[in-house]
Amino acid sequence: MSEMVPVDADAVLWSAPADERAGRPLLVLLHGYGSDERDLFGLAPFLPAEFVVAAVRAPLSPPFPTPGWSWYPIEGLDAPGGDAVTTAARSLIDWLDAATPAEGTVGLLGFSQGAAVALQALRLQPDRFAFVVNLAGYVDSGALPTDEHLAEVRPPVFWGRGARDEVIPAARVEHTIQWLPDHVELSGRVYAGLTHSVSQEELVDVRAFLEKQLAAQRP
């Protein structure tokens, strides 16, 4: 079993001070492999202002010379019995338990490895998260005992990916294509010409998705 390393609460970047967060929906940003919390936090000005945004730093250091941080090792990821993605998702959930009230609305937005962790957290606690934005990520192939309940709840998930993304293996993309529609309310796009990155066009679609989720939460 993979050893769980806690998220560094002191490294989290917040869009609002603690005294301005109560009663507002939370959007947690999870960066990709070899990056850090500052990467996706740069998207905050493009996201709906109703959200409190928290950009979390992954807890692991990738092998030299890769810079930044990682949610789980990419070496041996497909080995039988691997649980690295689940361990990373549990670390995220532990941080969330300590950082936010349990009754608040929480959505997750992840890029690449961060998106895989976001989807895994949703699978672990289908009733905890209001939605997930999956940018250039994938669903881990291992089964979880909570998957059946996820398919009953069917929370909204936006999946955006580039037609020229050659970073995520084709087998993981294909598994995600097959798996997500059976378990969530799926929307999203494949962006022509886009590589393993995020485009302005995609950000427009993400904002529209987030605004739709805000509207669904209003009385």
Automatic annotation (TrEMBL):
Single GO term (MF): hydrolase activity
Keyword set includes Hydrolase: yes
Membrane-spanning parts: none
Keyword Hydrolase on entry: yes
InterPro entries attached to this UniProt entry: AB_hydrolase_fold, LYPA1-2/EST-like, PLipase/COase/thioEstase
Keywords (A to Z) from UniProt: Hydrolase
Residues annotated as domain Phospholipase/carboxylesterase/thioesterase: 22-212
Family of the protein in this entry: Belongs to the AB hydrolase superfamily. AB hydrolase 2 family.
Protein name stated in the entry: Esterase
Upper classification of the organism: Bacteria, Bacillati, Actinomycetota, Actinomycetes, Micrococcales
